[in-house]
Write a structure and sequence with these properties.
The chain is an alpha+beta fold.
Length: about 150
């Protein structure tokens, strides 16, 4: 196992075991439900925005280790960022996994570790579900449903 594969595996396991921002957020100003009925991932994403800044961000629900870890990394990375910066990070993250773009390491920082999900194409939707729900929350769209 390469060092990067080990880092990927360790980070997934750590964030699954001790997820950051894994809670309901009653004071959220934005929220969206994301579900993948084929694999069972089912999460709400909550965002509290004040003065165009993400004061708090959380997610809650059920899903696999990859979806839960992705939500944990998202919550810890985006808290405190300006909404426009969070949207740019979200776009860079989705481009990295869905469009197979080269990771924007400056914008994504530690989130690039999830690039390893691309080795398992069926799991990409697991990693992106909470990010799609974040997108829906910030845009005020209806709940997001993805299918593998």
């Amino acid at each position: 196992m390469s060092a990067i594969d080990r880092l990927y595996q360790d980070m997934i396991l750590e964030h699954n075991k001790n997820p950051r921002g894994f809670k309901e957020l009653p004071e959220a100003t934005h929220k969206c439900h994301g579900v993948n009925p084929l694999c069972g991932d089912d999460f709400w994403v909550y965002v509290k925005v004040e003065n165009d800044s993400i004061q708090d961000i959380a997610f809650h629900g059920n899903g696999c280790a990859i979806s839960k870890s992705s939500g944990s990394l998202m919550a810890s990375y985006l808290k405190g960022k300006q909404v426009q910066d969070a949207v740019a990070v979200k776009e860079a993250f989705l481009n990295m996994l869905v469009k197979d773009a080269k990771p924007d390491e400056v914008r994504l920082g530690k989130l690039t570790v999830l690039e390893g999900v691309k080795k398992f194409p069926v799991r990409v939707k697991c990693a992106t579900l909470v990010w799609r729900a974040l997108e829906g929350a910030l845009e005020g769209t209806e709940p997001i449903t993805t299918e593998s």
